[in-house]
Specification:
By secondary structure, the chain is of the alpha/beta class. It folds into 3 domains: 235 residues, Aminohydrolase, N-terminal nucleophile (Ntn) domain (Glutamine Phosphoribosylpyrophosphate, subunit 1, domain 1, 4-Layer Sandwich), CATH 3.60.20; 199 residues, Glucose-6-phosphate isomerase like protein, domain 1 (Rossmann fold, 3-Layer(aba) Sandwich), CATH 3.40.50.10490; 147 residues, Rossmann fold, CATH 3.40.50.10490. Helices cover 33% and strands 23% of the residues. The strands form 5 sheets. An 8-stranded antiparallel sheet has the order 3-2-4-1-10-9-11-14, with helices on one face. The chain has a 6-stranded antiparallel sheet with strand order 5-6-7-8-12-13. Helix 4 crosses helix 5 and helix 7 packs antiparallel against helix 12. It is globular. Bound molecules: fructose -6-phosphate (F6R). The site of fructose -6-phosphate has 14 residues, from helix 8 and helix 14.
Length: 595
């Protein structure tokens, strides 16, 4: 949550870099935005609302400064307002600070600083930081010392950056919140995530927890907590700047839905060989696991984990799935035989990170299944498998869900030592079949017909149960309409009371359990509800439904992945017709770094 950008250099206009970066970071938070540029004094611009509002308000000129920081906010302490927007400054406006994370001891620090005469203008936890810096400056500290002394007082999570008046260095620190540095030819960058500066450079340094950095036009110096300089590796990211743009689509979400065949191909590349009949994941070559497997994840990633756990059980492994926020290491048996897999697109989700840390402390082997190279989860875990979906900007997860499922199918092959020729063949054919769904889908027409419904229900069993949950999550988060997903057999145990002729039911019917789900469809129809069957057997199942969204048969394990794509499209088109803020739904943020 919250996005941070910073630039110090001579090659580009600082304000332009900051505004471009903030637009690229809006998926992390979008209730207020601001920036500060050091140009002898500090020029600070900030306001409630999104980045385009800020951009319209500030003069187009550059500020003749060499260093600046910016922030887009997802509010935690205090509502969205001009005052609560970052950057925050000290009493004399000598330093400006942006922060992502939560300062847990801010109340005590604020009381201490207020008693010492500091005046606060916002409700935020962040504002203590510039005042702590100010007090250190008053005691004779240099900017670098003052910044370190302030950070030393903080408890909690933070990615924090500060600029001082008349100083072209940006001071940076990180603890449990994402922060990546960019090495350019004409300057240096920092951001919560790589796409924010990808247009300028693809060379990055991943800052570790507890590290500090000084970012200036001439270079980046990374130091440890004691101030000793650390040699850091510069990595090159293989994301294309074009990946982070909309490429002519109205919304990132629609673009990302259409990128799914490509995302799948990248996920499978050099891992699945039909010729040799093998699944090989190089990153996992040293992973040994014979004991129980536990998945921890949130939201859409949890739905992917449900799918993965089921596959592993079917392959003879003991696998359980936990909502990361409910993973209580005290009440769950964890031994050094246990493998705990954190499924997380961003690799930064606080609930998932805390579950993974608990698992590590309890002695389990941990594995991160993530999209973001160098993310917190990737660093926390003993092993990492990347899903290679490319940047996902729309807040609603789409291509990363599909890539997670494909990666989990491969993981199940690796962990069950049984390379299944059928699964391998089906995986290889999946991208083309997904393309076929995108080309032929009639989801838009279905959305038009049911846009005024009171609520939407989604049912499926077996591998389709997580698809039903995910279909409902997607519908509620981008349309703001009531939607629920159920294991099909559960409908009659209560939720059926909600079913009326104004509540369309999407029934995902593929694979061997079709007969039972058809029975559930009949129960629904008897109550007058329209049924939309999402199925690979349109002839057989279509007769029980008022509408059909057809998908090709991709085998028993993968056809549900295709069914999910139809549901993504229905949600997208309902939200589109309701004129919702599809890429930035209200109250949500892409990377949820608070518990
Ligand atoms: C929904 C969505 C969220 C995320 C959840 C976990 O579309 O995107 O439910 O799946 O916040 O995020 P990650 O996967 O980054 O851990």
């Amino acid at each position: 949550m919250c996005g941070i950008i910073g630039y110090s250099g001579t090659g580009n206009d600082v304000q332009e870099v900051l505004l471009t970066g903030l637009s690229g970071l809006e998926y992390r938070g979008y209730d207020s935005a601001g920036f500060a540029i050091s140009n002898g004094s500090l020029a600070v611009h900030k306001r409630e609302g999104d980045v385009s509002g800020l951009e319209a308000e500030v003069p187009a000129s550059n500020h003749d400064g060499l260093a600046g920081i910016g922030h887009t906010r997802w509010s935690t302490h205090g509502p969205p307002s001009d005052e609560n927007a970052h950057p925050h400054t000290d009493c004399e406006s000598r330093v400006a600070v942006v922060h992502n994370g939560i300062i847990e001891n801010y109340q005590a620090l604020r009381t201490e600083l207020s008693t010492a005469g500091h005046e606060f203008e916002s409700d935020t936890d962040t504002e203590v930081i510039p005042h702590l810096i100010e007090s250190a400056l008053e005691n004779g500290a240099t900017p670098d010392q003052a910044f370190r002394q302030a950070v030393d007082r903080l408890e909690g999570s933070y990615a924090v950056a500060a600029v001082f008046q008349a100083d072209e260095t940006i001071y940076v620190a990180r603890n449990e919140s994402p922060l990546v540095l960019g090495v350019g030819d004409d300057g240096h960058y920092l951001a919560s995530d790589v796409p924010a500066f990808l247009e300028y450079t693809d060379r990055v340094i991943y800052l570790e927890d507890g590290q500090f950095a000084r970012v200036s036009p001439s270079g980046i110096v990374v130091t440890d907590e004691q101030g000793a300089v650390i040699d850091t590796a510069i990595d090159t990211v293989d994301w294309d700047p074009e990946d982070a743009g909309k490429s002519g689509y109205d919304h990132y979400m629609l673009k990302e839905i259409h990128e799914q065949p490509t995302a799948l191909r990248k996920c499978l590349r050099e891992r699945v060989s039909e010729l040799e009949n093998t699944i090989t994941v190089d990153e996992l070559s040293s992973l040994e696991s014979t004991g129980p497997i536990q998945f921890v994840a949130c939201g859409t990633s949890y739905h992917a984990a449900l799918y993965g756990a089921r596959l592993l059980r079917e392959n003879g492994r003991s696998a359980q799935c936990f909502l990361a926020s409910e993973y209580d290491a005290r009440s769950i048996p964890i031994t050094d035989e246990t493998l705990v897999v954190g499924v997380t697109q961003s690799g930064e989700t606080a609930d998932t990170m805390s579950a993974l840390r608990a698992a590590n402390q309890a002695g389990a082997t941990t594995l991160a299944l993530t999209n973001v190279v160098g993310s917190s989860a990737a660093r926390e875990c003993d092993h990492v498998m990347y899903i290679r979906a490319g940047p996902e900007i729309g807040v609603a997860a789409t291509k990363t869900f599909v890539s997670q499922q494909a990666a989990l199918a491969m993981l199940s092959g690796v962990l069950s030592n049984g390379d299944s020729p059928t699964l391998i063949k089906d995986l290889r054919g999946l991208p083309d079949k997904l393309q076929h769904v995108l080309d032929e889908s009639t989801a838009q027409a279905v959305a038009t017909e049911f846009v005024d419904a009171d609520a939407y229900f989604f049912i499926g069993r077996g591998y389709n149960a997580p698809v039903a949950l995910e279909g409902a999550l997607k519908m509620k988060e981008i349309t703001y309409k009531h939607a629920e997903g159920f294991a099909a057999g559960e409908l009659k145990h209560g939720p059926l009371a909600l079913v009326t002729e104004r509540t369309p039911v999407f029934a995902v019917v593929t694979g061997t359990d079709a007969a039972k789900t058809i029975g559930n469809i009949k129960e629904v129809e008897a109550r007058g509800a329209p049924v939309i069957a999402v199925t690979d057997s349109p002839e057989a199942v279509g007769q029980y439904a008022s509408h059909v969204l057809a998908v090709p048969d991709a085998g028993p394990y993968l056809t549900p992945i295709l069914a999910n794509v139809q549901l993504q499209l229905v949600s997208y088109w309902v939200a589109n017709q309701l004129d919702r803020s599809i890429d930035k739904p209200r109250n949500l943020a892409k990377s949820v770094t608070v518990e």
